[in-house]
Write a structure and sequence with these properties.
Elements (H helix, E strand, L loop, with lengths): L2 H38 L3 H24 L6 H19 L8 H15 L5 E2 L4 E5 L33 H8 L1 H4 L6 E4 L12 H13 L3 H26 L4 H8 L2 H7 L5 H20 L6 H17 L15 H4 L2 H31 L1 H7 L4 H5 L4 H6 L1 H24 L14 H13 L2 E3 L6 E4 L3 H20 L14 H27 L6 H41 L2 E4 L5 H25 L20 H7 L2 E6 L3 H24 L4
Parallel strand pairs: 4-7
Antiparallel strand pairs: 1-2, 2-3, 5-6
C-alpha cells in the first residue's frame, strides 16, 4: 500500500466521526426543541428545528467530501464551508444580535439613503431617517409602532438582543404585525464614524430591499447576506493567495466568532477579510514569488488604506513587508521605496478619515473645545500624555490585564460569547477546548516531506531578454544573404554540412595534387585548373561557415530555452520561513496586540479600573494567522494532514455550536 492510500485510510475515521458527532448533537437539539414546543405551545420552534437538523447533517456530508480531497483547491472547500455556516448563524441568531449591531445598522441605513439619493437625516433634529416599518427593530422606548401609540410592550427590547424563543416567532409574524410603510421616521441610534467602505455590502443590501419594496426582515437578510458574501470572498481569496499556511487562514476564518460576525451587519467582517488578504499577499511575496508586480504593490497599499482608518491598531502589520527578500523588489533601495509608498498610503488614509479622533486622543482639551470629542473619549479617564508620563502605571495595567483576562479573551476570540457578548449563546467549554486544540495542531509541522510548489508568472528581466534576443535574431536573418548557386545553405542540417565539407576537402586535395605534379614537371599552370582550385577553396570556406552558423544557432536555441523557462509561467518551490522571520512576525503581531490594549486603556478604561476595560477577544482575530505563522515548529511533527483535518473539524464544531445555540434559545424566556 502506497503512502497516499495509507493517508486515505488513516484520515477516513476523522471524517466519519465528524458526521456522527453532528447526528449526536442533533438528537440533543431535538429533545430541546420538543420540550420548548410543548412548554410554550408553539409548534414553530420544532418546525424550524426540522429544517436545521437535516441541513446540518447534509452540510457535514458535503464538508467531508470537500475537505477529504487532496490538492491545492482548499479555497473552494473553505468558501463552501464559510458560506453555509454563515447562513446557519444568520438563521439561529436573527435580528440585531451582534456586538454594536444597532450602530452598524444605523450607519448602513444612512449610507443606503445616500445611495438612493434620499435625505439620510430627519431635519432639523439631525437624526437618522428610517422607514416606519423598520423602526420597531430598535424598540428603545418600548413603542413598537410609531403610527399606533397603543402598540407597546412592558419591557423594551431590541429584536435578537438577546436571542430567545419569542425572537423566532417575531421574525415570522413581523409583516403581519407591522403594516408596511415607507414614511421616514427619526431613529436616535448613533452611527459609526469610520471608513464607509466596510459598510458598502450592507448598504447595497438595504438599498436593494428598499428598491424592491421588501419588508424589514428582507432588508435585514439582504444586508447581512451581502456582508457574508463579502467576507467569504475576501477570506477565500486569502486562502487561495497564500502559498503556505492555507490551513491557518481557513481555520481562523471558520471560528464561531468569525463566522457569526460575518453573518451580521458588523464592519468586522470586511475588516477581518481585508487584514487576512493583506497578510496572505505578504506571505506570497515572501515565500512564493520571484518579483513584485505593480498590481501587487497597489493591492497592498489599497488594503492598508482600508483597514488602517478602521482600526489603527493593525497598522504595524505593514512591517511584515520586511519579510520579503530584497531580490523580489529588485534591490534594497527599491524595497525601501515600496515600504515608504505603503506607509504613506496608510498615513494618508488615516489622516483623511481619523484626523478628529487622533486630535481627541492626543489633544483632548482642543478637541473638546472644537466639539470633536467622541463618545469613547468622554467615557475615558486617561489621556495619552498621562500614560506616556507614567510608564510604570501603564505597565502595571497591562500585566494585570494579561494575568486576569488572557484566557477570557482567548475564549471570546473563539466564540464562547456570541451575539452581544451573550454568555449563554456560544461554544461550550468543551467545544472551545477542541477549537483551541485545533489551532495548536496547526503549529505542528508536516513530516511527510512533500515539496510544495507554486505557479509564478515569470520575471520581467527574463521576458525583456527574450524580446531582445528575438529582435537580434530577426535582424541577423534579414541581413544574411546566401548565394543562390551554393550547394549547401546555412539552414542545412549538421549531416549535410559535414558531407559538403568532406566533398570540398576531397576536391581541394585533388586539385592541389594536380598543381603540385604540374609544378614538379615544370609545366605551366592552366587556367581551368586554377579556377578549379579557387572554386574548391571557396566551397571549403562556405562549408566551414555553415558548420559554425549551425553551432551558433544551436547555442542560441539552448539559451533561448533556458531564458523561456524564466520568462514564461513556471513552478517554483515555496520557501520555508526561518527562525528570524518567525520571530519578527511574532514581534509585529505582539505590537498590534499591545496596541489594542493601549487603545482601550486610552479610550475606554475608567480611572478606578483595576485592569484594562472594553477589550474583546474578537479584536485579535485579524492577528491570528500571523501568530500561527510565528509559532511554527519543527520539533513537533505529524504525518496527519492537519491543514485539512482542522478546518473540517471546525466545520463540524460550528454545526454543533449552531444546534446548541438554537436549543438554548428556544428554552429562553
Amino acid at each position: 500500500m502506497n503512502r497516499n492510500n495509507e493517508k486515505a485510510v488513516r484520515t477516513l475515521p476523522f471524517f466519519l466521526c465528524g458526521i456522527f458527532l453532528v447526528v449526536i448533537c442533533g438528537l440533543y437539539g431535538a429533545v430541546s426543541a420538543l420540550n420548548a414546543a410543548a412548554q410554550f405551545g408553539d409548534n414553530l420552534l420544532f418546525v424550524l428545528y426540522e429544517l436545521l437538523f437535516p441541513a446540518s447533517v447534509i452540510t457535514a456530508l458535503f464538508a467531508a467530501l470537500l475537505w477529504s480531497r487532496k490538492g491545492d483547491r482548499m479555497y473552494r472547500a473553505y468558501a463552501f464551508s464559510a458560506m453555509v455556516l454563515g447562513v446557519l448563524y444568520l438563521a439561529v441568531m436573527p435580528g440585531l444580535s451582534a456586538p454594536d449591531e444597532l450602530s452598524h445598522y444605523s450607519t448602513a441605513y444612512r449610507i443606503s439613503s445616500n445611495m438612493m439619493l434620499e435625505d439620510p437625516l430627519i431635519r432639523p433634529a439631525g437624526l437618522t431617517a428610517v422607514r416606519a416599518v423598520d423602526y420597531p427593530l430598535e424598540d428603545m422606548n418600548g413603542v413598537k409602532t410609531p403610527l399606533v401609540p397603543d402598540d407597546e410592550e412592558s419591557v423594551p427590547e431590541v429584536l435578537g438582543n438577546p436571542v430567545k424563543q419569542t425572537t423566532y416567532r417575531a421574525v415570522k409574524d413581523w409583516d403581519k404585525r407591522y403594516a408596511f410603510s415607507t414614511k421616514p421616521v427619526a431613529s436616535a441610534i448613533p452611527d459609526v464614524h469610520t471608513t464607509p467602505v466596510f459598510y458598502l455590502p450592507q448598504a447595497i443590501g438595504f438599498s436593494l430591499a428598499r428598491a424592491l419594496g421588501l419588508g424589514t426582515m428582507g432588508l435585514l437578510f439582504l444586508g447581512k447576506f451581502l456582508n457574508l458574501c463579502c467576507y467569504v470572498a475576501l477570506t477565500a481569496l486569502a486562502v487561495r493567495t497564500t502559498p503556505l499556511g492555507k490551513g491557518w487562514f481557513a481555520a481562523a476564518g471558520l471560528l464561531p466568532m468569525s463566522v457569526s460576525l460575518a453573518a451580521s451587519l458588523s464592519y468586522d467582517a470586511g475588516l477581518i477579510g481585508t487584514v487576512f488578504l493583506f497578510t496572505a499577499l505578504i506571505f506570497k511575496l515572501a515565500y512564493g514569488a520571484e518579483e513584485i508586480r505593480a498590481r501587487e504593490l497597489f493591492a497592498l497599499c489599497a488594503l492598508a488604506a482600508l483597514f488602517g482608518p478602521c482600526k489603527l491598531v493593525y497598522a504595524p502589520l505593514i512591517l511584515l513587508l520586511w519579510l520579503v527578500p530584497a531580490r523580489v523588489f529588485g534591490g534594497g533601495g527599491k524595497k525601501l521605496l515600496c515600504f515608504l509608498i505603503l506607509l504613506l498610503s496608510l498615513i494618508a488614509a488615516v489622516l483623511a478619515v481619523n484626523a478628529d479622533v487622533l486630535e481627541a486622543y492626543f489633544f483632548p482639551a482642543v478637541a473638546e473645545q472644537a466639539g470633536n470629542e467622541s463618545a469613547d473619549m468622554r467615557h475615558a479617564g486617561f489621556t495619552a500624555a498621562e500614560l506616556f508620563s507614567h510608564p510604570l502605571f501603564t505597565l502595571r495595567m497591562l500585566l494585570n490585564s494579561l494575568s486576569a483576562c488572557i484566557l477570557t479573551w482567548g475564549g471570546e476570540m473563539i466564540g464562547t460569547k456570541l451575539g452581544n457578548l451573550d454568555p449563554l449563546l456560544g461554544a461550550s467549554g468543551l467545544q472551545t477546548l477542541f477549537f483551541a486544540l485545533g489551532l495548536f495542531c496547526l503549529t505542528v509541522a508536516d513530516s511527510t516531506g512533500e515539496t510544495v510548489r507554486i505557479l509564478v508568472p515569470g520575471t520581467r528581466a527574463a521576458r525583456r531578454a527574450a524580446r531582445d534576443r528575438e529582435e537580434r535574431e530577426r535582424a541577423a536573418a534579414s541581413a544574411e544573404v546566401l548565394p543562390a548557386t551554393e550547394t549547401s545553405a546555412v539552414g542545412t542540417s549538421a549531416e549535410e554540412a559535414a558531407q559538403a565539407e568532406e566533398r570540398a576537402q576531397a576536391e581541394t586535395e585533388t586539385a592541389l595534387d594536380a598543381v603540385s605534379q604540374q609544378a614538379a614537371a615544370g609545366e605551366v599552370l592552366t587556367a581551368p585548373l586554377g579556377e578549379h582550385v579557387a572554386e574548391a577553396a571557396e566551397t571549403l570556406r562556405e562549408a566551414e561557415a555553415a558548420v559554425a552558423a549551425e553551432a551558433a544557432a544551436s547555442e542560441a536555441v539552448s539559451a533561448a530555452e533556458e531564458a523561456d523557462e524564466n520568462a514564461l509561467p513556471h513552478y517554483i518551490e515555496v520557501g520555508v520561513p526561518g527562525r528570524i522571520a518567525r520571530l519578527f512576525a511574532f514581534l509585529v503581531g505582539a505590537l498590534s496586540f499591545f496596541g489594542v490594549l493601549g487603545a482601550m486603556l486610552l479610550a475606554w478604561t475608567s480611572r478606578d479600573a483595576v485592569w484594562i476595560e472594553g477589550v474583546q477577544g474578537r479584536y485579535f482575530l485579524p492577528l491570528l494567522p500571523v501568530f500561527l505563522f510565528s509559532l511554527q515548529s519543527r520539533m513537533l511533527q505529524s504525518r496527519l494532514p492537519f491543514k485539512r483535518l482542522v478546518p473540517y473539524g471546525f466545520v463540524i464544531l460550528n454545526l454543533c455550536v449552531g444546534i446548541r445555540i438554537f436549543a438554548l434559545a428556544v428554552l429562553r424566556v
